[in-house]
């Protein structure tokens, strides 16, 4: 399974700022979006391009443009919405399909409550957005929704990923590519990533600390 841990200094610096206890909602939200932009840069490095000649200031210039990329962003409600503005900065024409899943805090199993995907998913590359890949249950359920809709090319962007979640994904959907700012140490006994970020949804939406 392709797993890219983005070691770029800007990513590591901004993730380090996110890990501080006591960030304001504004600070955490801005950083989540900025790291998402940088992960997008990595996750789109393999987009096909084609040659095109444009009228430049000194005459015709042969340049390159992206060829036929059909991208659907798939933020997982709720926390994934915090990454959406940063990804749209780089791919402003992307379609957006939204899925809603919430982890039951006792069983740690995902409970789905919403799904609205783009049409013709079989032609599209999906970029799943979620700050946290913990047990992997939420991601696996999302991948299964996308595959059921016909999607064949799926990448996931996560601020932080736990080894447990990566192993679970590899066992079920090793064709999915993962881009993350950090593969962290482990999950704690209530399924939170260590050192992690805490509850990303609560921090992005300012609901609880
Ligand atoms: O890998 P897993 O163990 O499934 O956990 C990860 C999920 O948990 C968090 O969402 P949460 O359920 O807290 O929902 P929220 O975004 O509404 O806060 C997080 O944003 C992921 O979606
Ligand atoms: O560490 C974690 C795990 C799941 N969800 C979060 O927001 N944080
Ligand atoms: Mg949450």
TrEMBL record:
Highest taxon above the source species: Bacteria
Keyword Glycosyltransferase: yes
Substrates-to-products reaction catalysed: UMP + diphosphate = 5-phospho-alpha-D-ribose 1-diphosphate + uracil
Pathway assignment: Pyrimidine metabolism; UMP biosynthesis via salvage pathway; UMP from uracil: step 1/1
Gene3D superfamilies membership: 3.40.50.2020
Matches recorded under InterPro entries: PRTase-like (IPR029057), PRTase_dom (IPR000836), Upp_B (IPR034332), UPRT (IPR005765), UPRTase/APRTase (IPR050054)
Sorted UniProt keywords: Allosteric enzyme, Glycosyltransferase, GTP-binding, Magnesium, Nucleotide-binding, Transferase
Record's GO cellular component terms: cytoplasm
Gene Ontology MF, one: GTP binding
Activity regulation as described: Allosterically activated by GTP.
Binding site for 5-phospho-alpha-D-ribose 1-diphosphate: 78, 103, 130-138, 199
Stated role: Catalyzes the conversion of uracil and 5-phospho-alpha-D-ribose 1-diphosphate (PRPP) to UMP and diphosphate.
NCBIfam families in alphabetical order: PRK00129.1, upp
PANTHER family cross-referenced by the UniProt entry: ADENINE PHOSPHORIBOSYLTRANSFERASE, URACIL PHOSPHORIBOSYLTRANSFERASE, CHLOROPLASTIC
Protein name: Uracil phosphoribosyltransferase
The encoding gene: upp
């Amino acid at each position: 399974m392709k797993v890219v841990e983005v070691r770029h200094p800007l990513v590591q610096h901004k993730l380090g700022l996110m890990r501080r206890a006591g960030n304001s909602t504004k600070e955490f939200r801005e950083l989540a979006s900025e790291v998402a932009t940088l992960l997008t840069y990595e996750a789109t490095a393999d987009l096909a391009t084609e040659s095109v000649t444009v009228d430049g200031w000194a005459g015709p210039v042969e340049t390159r443009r992206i060829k036929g990329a059909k991208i659907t962003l798939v933020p997982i409600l709720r926390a994934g919405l915090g990454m959406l503005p940063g990804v749209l900065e780089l791919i402003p024409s992307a379609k957006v399909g939204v899925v809603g899943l919430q982890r039951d805090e006792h069983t740690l199993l995902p409970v789905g409550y919403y799904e609205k995907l783009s049409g013709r998913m079989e032609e599209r590359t999906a970029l799943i957005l979620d700050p946290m890949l913990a047990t992997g249950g939420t991601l696996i359920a999302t991948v299964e929704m996308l595959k059921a809709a016909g999607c064949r090319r799926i990448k996931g962007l996560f601020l932080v990923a736990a080894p447990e979640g990566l192993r679970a994904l590899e066992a079920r959907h090793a064709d999915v590519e993962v881009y993350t700012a950090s593969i962290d140490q482990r999950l704690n006994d209530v399924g939170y990533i260590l050192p992690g970020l805490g509850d990303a949804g609560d921090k992005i939406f300012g609901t609880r600390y």
